[in-house]
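S.,

Sequence below, as promised.
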Amino acid sequence: MPPTYRTSDGKTGILSVSSKVVAHVIEQVNWTRPIYFSTYVEPARMIGLDEFMSMEGMVFRLTRQKSGTGDYYVNASTLERNINERYVYRGITDPTVYKSPETSNLLHNYFIAFVDLCENYMKRLALTWLVRSRNLM
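The prediction came back faster than expected:
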């Protein structure tokens, strides 16, 4: 019988060859160094580890902690530092710079990173507002 895994929604899946490679790498590394996945990697290739992924910009980092949300965790401080200090956005909006279809698809990941950061800050702001409102009562 082929190796299987259980997804977050309780379904059982069969590991593909690429998923077996991912599982093997995780086993061999054994937390001695970080493991990163590109944000361009299909969620199905993460072999059900979505809740153990930390969004840090153009990469997900595999963590030991489960997010508990059914989805990946947003590491807001690292994500913000990457967006504002590490990534370079030259030529993205320049129409004279040729962008292949693959490049255009990859540029979508910048948008996702910005949205994830904004959503994270909106949730924090809402929580802060709720706490302040409760203290006023």
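DSSP finds three helices and six strands in the chain.

Coffee later?
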